[in-house]
Design brief:
The complex is a heterodimer of chains A (129) and B (459).
Chain A: E1 2-5, H1 13-26, H2 39-46, H3 50-62, E2 66-69, E3 73-76, H4 84-103, H5 108-128
Helix pairs in contact in A: 1-3, 1-5, 2-3
Chain B: H1 2-21, E1 30-31, E2 34-35, H2 44-67, H3 77-112, E3 122-125, H4 126-130, H5 142-159, H6 165-188, H7 198-233, H8 238-273, E4 303-305, E5 312-314, H9 319-348, E6 354-358, E7 361-366, E8 369-374, E9 378-384, E10 391-398, E11 402-409, E12 412-419, E13 425-430, E14 434-437, H10 442-458
Parallel strand pairs in B: 12-14
Antiparallel strand pairs in B: 1-2, 4-5, 6-7, 7-8, 9-13, 10-11, 11-12, 13-14
Helix pairs in contact in B: 1-2, 1-3, 2-3, 3-9, 5-6, 5-7, 6-7, 7-8
The chains are: A mainly alpha (129), B alpha+beta (459).
């Protein structure tokens, strides 16, 4: 899988990395059981502290996207359905995102089209998972 | 010695001009530490700056090579060495400032015309990162040099009478560790894809790591042999030692050529991969190379590959890098000090070579060298008129005018404290070695001989 991380982005590296991995799993670029680069390899690549990458991997593991194994390293995992707390957090994030879109002049139909387009890619990814 | 050192100096100037000139040739889309967009790489203004830079380097090499011919006309070793070091330091300083000047010139050209590339985000290719070392030369290659070092260490400890052999062995192991560390540095290098094309990026990564890792492993084999060869040949006869010396020189030349050709070949392969019209990715590194060296406090790496593709260089933005640079500076200063000062004292002080007798001990003194022997150990003393033949230096100072240090004469251990232009030479035969001595003045040599002779007669 290829993705980009910008050091000049308003989002810190660890947030960008988390987002890219989740999107990569959703659109099928990262397959179930696929091994990710090690913490050290990714830290060397981004020129950042290994703790930063370790933090991302740990967070994604807690959220159910990754699995770690001594032999296989860090691998992609098909996440479970949302738990109550996660569902609540998801609803809040969605509400905020949609509020921002509406406030910035996006029409509901436009938003729906864009959502459908994203979901189409993710659906392909979900099938491969 | 003058001829050899002058030739070495001229070779250094020529090699340096050639090597530094590679910064003035496009490589990995970089010219004079500036990353150029594809459309500007053959711009006449850009090419003119690069050409002027290369021309200036050769001009400097020519001027300094001609100036170094003056070394032939120095009659004093100290003046020779002062000039030698001065030429070397001045040349490299001039080269460096020349490079800085042209880097700045090209940067200004790019800025004025708004030709600079926008900084790209990091491109992360997870598959490539996982497999980045698939063509890395395996670490098991170091086992051969390890075995050579083990054997060499055993041999030297058991059979060599060389003074300071423990230091030599320690230095050999340190160099071996340095090669392993360098190999590890290559393995840890980030991929940093140079294009948006996965295939090119993969090939680029493979060749880069393969060539560099292979170079370090093979160099470690050769260096391991190289460092023990002189010690092993010191036990041979004079005729055999000449063959040993020729083998030694051949090894050095082979190592130099092999390194250069390997890295040059790698450069060519990398440029061939990037010949296609792929837009180069630019990670905003140019400002860190503005001074011709890598200065990036935000990069955690201490060693990085330079942009010419010929060297590992230090990140001077890190404290450890600055310390290493300081140590290098100290080593160079020490080398200058320990070569020039003894030569100066030998040339311009009244009594640089002395033999004094006190409390039944004879003390021979020379700049940075001394030897004491009990008079009881002296078997005989004589005067000779000729410098002995078949001399091999083991440690010390050997110039056109002086021999100071530990030598072997016709295969036997000897200590020489000789002004080669003075006669007679006092020869002191002891149980363990033979000492050849002259003072600066013949009458002082005669005086020492007479004192020593009468002391031995009394004993």
């Amino acid at each position: 899988m290829q993705f980009e991380i910008s050091v000049h982005d308003k989002n810190p590296i660890y947030k960008q990395l988390r987002q890219q991995i989740i999107i990569g799993i959703a659109n099928g670029q990262l397959k179930d059981g696929e091994q990710l680069p090690s913490v050290r390899q990714l830290a060397d690549e981004l020129g950042t502290n290994a703790m930063t990458i370790s933090k991302v991997y740990q967070q994604l593991k807690e959220e159910g996207y990754l699995d770690t194994d001594r032999r296989k390293g860090t691998t992609v995992k098909k996440p479970q359905s949302f738990q109550t707390k996660e569902e609540f957090s998801y609803q809040n994030s969605l509400q905020l995102l949609l509020a921002e879109a509406v406030l910035h002049g996006k029409e509901p139909n436009t938003i729906l089209t864009e959502v459908k387009h994203c979901l189409k890619n993710f659906q392909t990814g979900a099938d491969t998972l | 010695m003058k001829l050899i050192m002058t030739l070495i100096l001229i070779c250094v100037f020529i090699l340096a001009a050639f090597s530094a000139g590679l910064s003035g040739k496009l490589h990995n889309n970089i010219l004079l530490e500036n990353t150029l967009p594809k459309t500007r790489q053959i711009d006449p203004a850009v090419l003119a700056i690069a050409k002027s830079y290369r021309k200036m380097l050769w001009l400097l090499a020519t001027i300094f090579s001609l100036a170094s011919l003056a070394l032939f006309f120095t009659s004093y070793d100290s003046l020779f060495l002062i000039l030698f070091w001065s030429f070397l330091l001045l040349f490299f300083s001039a080269n460096y400032f020349c490079e800085l000047h042209f880097i700045k010139k090209l940067t200004e050209l790019l800025t004025q015309n708004n030709w600079q590339l926008e900084t790209d985000p990091f491109l992360i290719d997870t598959e490539l990162i996982k497999e980045k070392n698939r063509r890395l030369f395996p670490w098991q290659g170091f086992l051969l040099s390890f075995l050579i070092l083990i054997f060499g260490t055993w041999y030297v400890l058991l059979y060599s009478i060389l003074s300071g052999k423990e230091l030599l062995i320690g230095a050999n192991w340190l160099i071996f560790m340095f090669f392993i560390f360098s190999w590890y540095t290559i393995a840890r290098l980030p991929v940093r894809p140079v294009t948006n094309n996965q295939t090119i990026n993969r090939k680029f990564t493979d060749v880069t790591r393969h060539y560099w890792s292979k170079l370090f492993v093979i160099s470690s084999w050769l260096i391991s042999l190289l460092l023990f060869l002189p010690i092993i040949t010191s036990r041979l006869s004079a005729a055999q030692a000449i063959i040993g010396m020729l083998i030694f020189i051949s090894f050095i030349l082979f190592l130099l050529f092999y390194s250069f050709i390997t890295l040059f070949h790698l450069r060519k392969k990398q440029d061939q991969l990037l010949e296609k019209k792929e837009r180069p990715r630019y990670y905003g590194d140019d400002p860190y190379w503005r001074y011709g060296v890598y200065i990036n406090p935000n990069d955690s790496r201490l060693f990085v590959l330079d942009r010419k593709g010929l060297n590992l260089t230090i990140n001077l933005g890190k404290t450890a890098g600055k310390i290493l640079l300081g140590i290098c500076g100290l080593l160079i200063t020490a080398a200058i000090f320990f070569t020039v000062i003894p030569a100066y004292r030998l040339d311009f002080t009244a009594d640089p070579l002395t033999a004094s007798i006190q409390n039944k001990t004879v003390s021979f003194q020379a700049p940075f060298f001394s030897k004491k022997i009990a008079t009881q150990q002296i078997r005989s003393v004589e005067l000779i008129d000729q410098v002995p033949q078949s001399i091999k230096k083991e440690t010390g100072f050997a110039t056109d005018n002086y021999f100071i240090g530990n030598f072997s004469v016709k295969g036997d251990n000897a200590i020489l404290l000789l002004d080669r232009n003075q006669r007679p030479i006092m020869v002191v035969h002891t149980n363990n070695e033979t000492i050849y001595y002259t003072a600066k003045q013949p009458r002082q040599t005669l005086s020492s001989y007479q004192k020593l002779s009468s002391l031995i007669d009394k004993d």
